[in-house]
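Sample intake — Glutathione-dependent peroxiredoxin
Collected from: Paraburkholderia tropica
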Amino acid sequence: MIKQGETLPDATLFEFIEDERAGCTLGPNSFGVREQTAGKRVVIFGLPGAFTPTCSAKHVPGYVEQFDALRAAGVDEIWCVSVNDAFVMGAWGRDQRTSGKVRMMADGSAAFTRALGLEQDLSARGMGIRSQRYAMVIDDGVVKTLNVEAPGKFEVSDAASILAALSPA
């Protein structure tokens, strides 16, 4: 499992782009993790799946609600990463009203999740390989904070916990 002080793996994530802009076409676009985090403070939170109960009722809404506070704490971007495809993540983002606040990043083949060492096998529940629930603060591609949830818990990866970690002691 990745640790505090380590550099993020060189991986590609996918984001469904709703509005065509320079360098991005409508639909799924690929983004290099290292390139996208270079020179920025990024909060990345991972979760088991789009449209699942805790993820939809608590995890994503908390980051949407705390967007302004996280920006005020020096966060440049917030990413939600899940082992789903970009189409599903795009639809979920529309449903959760994340536009302009949380980037919904798809890790469809779990390559990024596996490289982090944060995968879990939920095959017995019909979900296959998925991400553990976690949140991390990244400064210029380096993990500064990593909060990984115990199985079935939602206590340390929420927006309030990350905001507390960013606050001066």
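Post-analysis note: The chain has a mean pLDDT of 94.
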